[in-house]
Amino acid sequence: MTTAPRFLVDHLPSASATVERPHVTLTWAQSLDSKIAGPGGLRVILSGPESMLMTHWMRSMHDAILIGVNTLILDNPRLQANLIPPELNLPPPQPLILDPKLRFPTDSRILHEWNTKPNQRGKTLRQPWIICGDNVPPERIKLVEDAGARVVPVELDQNGHIPPSSLPMILTSLNLRSVMIEGGSKVLSSFLHTPTRDDGSRLVDSAVVTVAPMFIGEGIGVVPLGEDVGLPKMKNVHTETMGKDAVMICHVEDQ
Ligand SMILES: NC(=O)C1=CN([C@@H]2O[C@H](COP(=O)(O)OP(=O)(O)OC[C@H]3O[C@@H](n4cnc5c(N)ncnc54)[C@H](OP(=O)(O)O)[C@@H]3O)[C@@H](O)[C@H]2O)C=CC1
Ligand SMILES: Nc1nc(O)c(N)c(N[C@@H]2O[C@H](COP(=O)(O)O)[C@@H](O)[C@H]2O)n1
């Protein structure tokens, strides 16, 4: 596949996304029993080759990919679009980590790759940017920046989280036009429970959900236990079969 799947082009940010109003996409892969990982957060490969490639196309169609710090710690992901043919020279997505307390492990794979492959910078790799609380001690920020990451301190909410409603403005300040939020469970839940941005407009523009025909049983749900109340109504705008998986594109309905 040398071009993005048509249904993604039709539904995801293209010319419409701007730095002034960044496009926010939520995405995850889940089992038939709505789990995104195994017991204790054990990483599970849910996506087959076709939908995994589709996920990498999605990554390359957004300026940034965002995950919560627990996903970084548990999965140690690469967050690249490395399944896309390199000869297409598509700009790599910007990795963003939501990490209020700046727990970021400096031996993480994303930072190691950035530090050890200088010739890939700007080609397949971007520097990891960590969004933390503005109460993190300067010594800790210095340690993480000295290790090679960029740290972006922001105001936290009363739960000590980065408020989802403020993320679009943070993206604007970082000159990013779109973000693909990959998880995990707590981050997805906080975005699904927040209807609007600080400017009053809708927060989540699209959700792209890969459903794999398997059961996980005990594991991590799409949203944490007890947070399945007050979720928004979703509208299915497209369903595509990709290999063994079904991929649904949904919009959040006005509440
Ligand atoms: N199948 C899939 O598609 C995917 C699966 N996963 C799975 O998800 C699991 C991890 O999920 P989970 O444990 O819920 O952790 P998350 O990755 O959602 O990270 C949660 C942490 O992010 C920080 N945070 C900052 N801002 C927010 C906010 N607005 N809302 C919520 N958290 C915020 C908090 O850090 P602090 O506690 O320091 O304050 C919080 O504890 C892993 O097992 C991973 O494998 C992850 C991505 C995709
Ligand atoms: N699309 C998708 N399908 C799955 O089966 C998954 N387990 C995930 N997980 C997400 O992808 C990250 C790993 O990415 P890298 O390949 O290391 O770049 C992982 O952290 C989850 O965010 N996604």
TrEMBL record:
InterPro entries: DHFR-like_dom_sf (IPR024072), RibDG_C (IPR002734), Riboflavin_Biosynth_HTPR (IPR050765)
Keywords for this protein: NADP, Oxidoreductase, Riboflavin biosynthesis
Claim: NADP is one of the keywords in the record: yes
EC number: 1.1.1.302
Any one GO BP annotation for this protein: riboflavin biosynthetic process
Reaction it catalyzes: 2,5-diamino-6-(1-D-ribitylamino)pyrimidin-4(3H)-one 5'-phosphate + NADP(+) = 2,5-diamino-6-(1-D-ribosylamino)pyrimidin-4(3H)-one 5'-phosphate + NADPH + H(+); 2,5-diamino-6-(1-D-ribitylamino)pyrimidin-4(3H)-one 5'-phosphate + NAD(+) = 2,5-diamino-6-(1-D-ribosylamino)pyrimidin-4(3H)-one 5'-phosphate + NADH + H(+)
Residue ranges of every copy of the Bacterial bifunctional deaminase-reductase C-terminal domain listed in the record: 22-247
GO molecular function, one term: 5-amino-6-(5-phosphoribosylamino)uracil reductase activity
Biological pathway: Cofactor biosynthesis; riboflavin biosynthesis
Function: Catalyzes an early step in riboflavin biosynthesis, the NADPH-dependent reduction of the ribose side chain of 2,5-diamino-6-ribosylamino-4(3H)-pyrimidinone 5'-phosphate, yielding 2,5-diamino-6-ribitylamino-4(3H)-pyrimidinone 5'-phosphate.
Name of the protein in question: 2,5-diamino-6-ribosylamino-4(3H)-pyrimidinone 5'-phosphate reductase
